[in-house]
């Protein structure tokens, strides 16, 4: 099969190779998926750059956790009725070396949910880390109906889905965004108000947008950098659910201030989510797709031969939406 892989850590152009590898075979409980697309997420480029030093101990790595394709074989214990199913893949390159940047992937049956009708392979590649992370951030701490949620980076890969989940569940959503295009995307996803997080004292504008009342939950894309402003808008007993802190990866926290606010801090990553949370996200993604309201943003689609370009797009940023690689 044709696939991409790396055997050492480094820049995308230097270490990513595209060529032929042996076809994988489905083991017990597995399905073999003919991949149409895979998606590049920040965790993929960080691992390729060396964030997990022991990743290459057992050999090369085929990158990417997310993707979409068609089941063409099944392993022992999996119903043959699954043959021909259009599916989306999540968590492929976690705890193992063999991700979705390949023509074929053998993976556990539970990691290959049905691709909802009307969802393309390109869109299906966005459902793993972005949509599931957003679902967990919004719902991990109970119902949000009637609450006010602050979602920073509302036009980003996770933020765009988080706005939709929260809005459809009956929450009031205040999103942060700093361009007309991104503002419009947030509004179309369901945001009730927009605040630019690049302005000084932007927390005051969040409170103004909520009639001066503190908010119930924050979903945070830059935990460390945004924490001083976010603390200004939270009510006692509020929750911060965060999935990234790139600008300040080792943030210091004002412990006593946060303790006396009785805050809950939830750190979210799909790989470590409880299995029941993953399955609930899958159910809700399917239902939202059937209802026709779940929006997807695919910013770039590149061929597998250009996978280094796809990684560089994620690293350089400057756009909104998923980067998808065609297998």
Can you offer a commentary on this structure?
- With 327 residues, the chain is an alpha/beta fold.
- The protein has helices spanning 12-15, 42-49, 121-124, 127-139, 157-168, 180-189, 202-209, 223-231, 255-260, 275-291, 307-316, and strands at residues 2-5, 17-20, 30-40, 66-74, 86-89, 104-108, 148-151, 172-176, 193-195, 215-220, 234-242, 264-267, 298-303, 322-326.
- The protein folds into two domains: 2-126 and 296-326, Medium-chain alcohol dehydrogenases, catalytic domain (Quinone Oxidoreductase, Chain A, domain 1, Alpha-Beta Complex); 130-271, Alpha-Beta Complex (Quinone Oxidoreductase, Chain A, domain 1), CATH 3.90.180.10.
- It has eleven helices and 14 strands.
- Strands 3, 4, 5, 6, 13 and 14 form a six-stranded mixed beta sheet that branches.
- β11, α9 and β12 form a beta-alpha-beta unit.
Which fold does the CATH topology of the largest domain refer to? Quinone Oxidoreductase, Chain A, domain 1
- Tell me the helix content: 25-40%
Low confidence ranges? none
Relative strand content: 15-25%
What is the total domain count? 2
Q: What's the CATH C level of the largest domain? A: Alpha Beta
């Amino acid at each position: 099969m044709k696939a991409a892989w790396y055997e050492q850590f480094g820049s995308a152009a230097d270490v990513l190779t595209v060529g032929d590898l042996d076809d994988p075979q489905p083991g017990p409980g597995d399905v073999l998926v003919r991949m149409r697309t895979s998606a590049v997420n920040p965790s993929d480029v960080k691992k390729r750059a060396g964030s997990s030093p022991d990743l290459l101990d057992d050999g090369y790595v085929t990158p990417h956790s997310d993707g979409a394709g068609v089941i063409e074989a099944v392993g022992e214990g999996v119903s043959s009725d699954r043959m021909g199913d259009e599916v989306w893949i999540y968590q492929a390159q976690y705890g193992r070396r063999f991700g979705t940047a390949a023509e074929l992937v053998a993976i556990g049956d539970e990691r290959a949910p049905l691709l909802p009708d009307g969802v393309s392979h390109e869109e299906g590649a966005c459902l793993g880390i972005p949509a599931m992370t957003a679902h967990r951030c919004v719902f991990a701490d109970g119902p949000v109906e009637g609450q006010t949620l602050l979602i920073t980076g509302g036009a980003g890969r996770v933020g765009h889905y988080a706005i939709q989940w929260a809005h459809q569940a009956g929450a009031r959503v205040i999103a942060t965004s700093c361009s007309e295009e991104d503002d419009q995307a947030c509004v179309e996803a369901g945001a009730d108000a927009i605040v630019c997080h690049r302005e000084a004292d932007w927390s005051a504008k969040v409170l103004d947008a909520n009639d001066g009342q503190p908010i119930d939950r924050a979903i945070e894309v830059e935990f460390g950098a945004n924490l001083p402003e976010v603390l200004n808008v939270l009510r006692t007993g509020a929750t911060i659910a965060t999935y990234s802190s790139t600008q300040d990866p080792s943030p210091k926290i004002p412990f006593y201030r946060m303790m006396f606010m009785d805050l809950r801090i939830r750190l979210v990553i799909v790989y470590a989510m409880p299995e029941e949370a993953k399955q609930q996200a899958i159910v809700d993604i399917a239902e939202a797709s059937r209802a026709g309201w779940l929006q997807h943003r695919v910013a770039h689609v590149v061929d597998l031969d250009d996978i280094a370009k796809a990684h560089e797009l994620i690293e350089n940023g400057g756009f909104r939406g998923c980067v998808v690689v065609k297998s």
